[in-house]
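To whoever is covering the structure queue this week,

Two jobs came back overnight. Logging them here so there's a record in the thread.

Job A:
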Amino acid sequence: MADHILKKYRFLFFILISIGIISGFSKKLENLGSNIVNSYKIWQIKQDLILIKTNLDLEKSKQGLYPPEHRFSHWFKENLSKKFVYNFPIDRLKEPYIYKTLNKRNDFFISSSGKDKIHGTKDDIVISSIK
């Protein structure tokens, strides 16, 4: 009788063990997928910053100075809004870019807070006019 009960519940036991294994791996797969997506977003942010810098450099060649900080969002909408599929000044991680001018608007830098979403840390993504 015990053998019959064991056979009857063997399939159920197999299913429960399979669910346990899958659920253990699913968290790892979810984390791996999330890391891949975030890495791709970081790469996209770097490409976006290059495009923004190129257009800022064109603006400086025409106007003699980079746009002032308070007009940056407006400048971006006028010059680049059709090239981006998200609302500026938000990066692809949905965090704000920081734009600062230096040396009386002869230089600039833009930063994204990076993966940790905190500005001023090691993983910030920064591009500037300063070589």
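Job B:
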Amino acid sequence: MPVCAVSLRDARAGEAGAASAIIREAYEEFRPLFSAEAFAERIERWTEVQACLADCELIFATAGDSIAGTVMFYPDGSRSGQGGWPSGSAGILRLAVRRDHRRSGIAKALTLECIRRCSERRIATLALHTTEWMPVAKAMYERLGFVRDPDCDFAIRNGTALGYRLDVAAFRG
């Protein structure tokens, strides 16, 4: 799909379910990596958005009339439940793009919005985790200038959550 006009906005009251549905659809591709029971457990955790809203900003990307993607931005990354992020870092979780909008710049736009929010708040570091089984996401983050931070890695079922960080002040977009 070619790059499309993307609008970004904060989620409105009652839209956590829409974010959960996008995450569920996007992460479905990882089902073969897990047993049925393990995937059911993981997808339940990955899609629990409502409980996180007190600590994160839920951002949507829209293309035309549809919500195409979402991300959970944590201005205080320590509130995300993802261990190991440096003190004072912001964090990104659950970046997800609907299948029919992939490779259209949605994920990049959502990531850039998180970087913008860090810059606006003078947050020095934006941190995230990804995995070897998410090569497209991993490559995008690296192209944007995120660098590996193995001190933030942690073991997960089927691999390692790979820590990445971005020096927001040095970001040149």
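Note for Job B: The longest strand covers residues 66-74.

Please reply-all if you pick these up so we don't duplicate work.
Q.
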